[in-house]
Design a protein that fits this description.
The chain is an alpha+beta fold and about 260 residues long. Helix content is about 60%, strand content about 5%. A four-stranded mixed sheet has the order 2-1-3-4, covered by helices on one side. It binds glutathione (GSH). InterPro entries: Glutathione-S-Trfase_C-like (IPR010987), Glutathione-S-Trfase_C_sf (IPR036282), Glutathione_S-Trfase (IPR040079), Glutathione_S-Trfase_N (IPR004045), GST_C_Theta (IPR040077), GST_N_Theta (IPR040075), GSTT1/2/3 (IPR043377), Thioredoxin-like_sf (IPR036249).
Length: about 260
């Protein structure tokens, strides 16, 4: 290897590597954040439906076997909120509003991030899993789990509206511009695009302020928001087609492959 080739190789080795599946909501939040902030990175595509996240190679990056994860030089990190905080602090040029230096604003944003994992996410993810996604992953649908998840999802949306979106700003905890918490939670809610429109309207419809906040977050992060969500919209079309065809809840392996190929 020449000296020049060696340097290029070293630079490639040091480049931030981001392990994601764009059908995963925390993965999308990381990708949008990186793109909006012009941070250079390499996207390593993982396909959860093909169980790539469980491979021994990936478990060296994230022993928990989940996406997203990053490798920055010799430093590996998993958990999307920890990754967002790291990226916001490690890369120069990230605007302050994403993770404010002000201790009190930062503490409030951490508070929303912690709340997200045990509330909104615990409602949204199992709801979508148990209404549409399970068969694609080779699992049975569970209507009772879906009903319980919907209760937590709806109460979380009410709390976002009555607590986190109170204040004069358009964004969470009174922000005038979005923070990593806005991005993380809006990406979480976006997975509802996969469910039947009447179900989505029943759940989101009563929360006008939440709907406006979703639009504001999209607008603040365009065009990257739309580009990163393209795969979700393709999956949405596929699920809509299946519903129109009146497909049964049972999905055989050829259906699974077809859904995957459209994703
Ligand atoms: N708390 C984690 C959640 C990560 C997570 O749930 N990842 C999902 C995709 S959205 C995953 O990898 N699922 C595969 C599995 O758990 O086997 C984060 O925020 O990064």
């Amino acid at each position: 290897m020449t000296k020049n080739e060696e340097k290029i190789h070293q630079k490639e080795e040091m480049k931030l590597k981001v392990y994601v599946d764009r059908l995963s909501q925390p993965s999308r939040a990381i990708l949008i954040f990186l793109k909006v902030n012009g941070i250079e990175f390499e996207e390593i595509k993982m396909d959860i439906s093909k169980r790539q996240h469980l491979s021994p190679e990936f478990k060296k990056i994230n022993p928990m076997g989940q996406v997203p994860a990053i490798a920055d030089g010799r430093f590996n990190l998993f958990e999307s909120h920890a990754i967002l905080v790291y990226l916001a602090c490690a890369f120069p040029g990230v605007a302050d509003h994403w993770y404010p230096a002000d201790l009190f604003r930062r503490a409030k944003i951490n508070s929303v991030l912690d709340w997200h994992h045990s509330n909104l996410r615990r409602g949204a993810a199992p709801y979508v899993l148990n209404t549409v996604l399970a068969p694609v992953l080779g699992l049975p649908l569970n209507p009772q789990a879906a009903a319980e998840a919907e209760k937590l999802l709806s109460s979380s949306l009410s709390k976002i509206e009555s607590i986190w979106l109170q204040g004069n700003g358009k964004f969470l905890v009174g922000g005038l511009k979005p923070s990593i918490a806005d991005l993380s939670m809006v990406c979480e809610i976006m997975q509802l695009e996969l469910v039947d429109e009447k179900d989505r309207n029943r759940i989101l419809g009563p929360h006008k302020r939440v709907l406006q906040w979703i639009e504001d977050t999209k607008n603040a992060t365009r065009p990257h928001f739309d580009e990163v969500h393209e795969v979700l919209f393709r999956a949405k079309t596929r699920f809509q087609e299946r519903r129109l065809m009146g497909a049964s809840n049972k999905t055989d392996s050829s259906d699974r492959a077809a859904v995957r190929s459209k994703m």
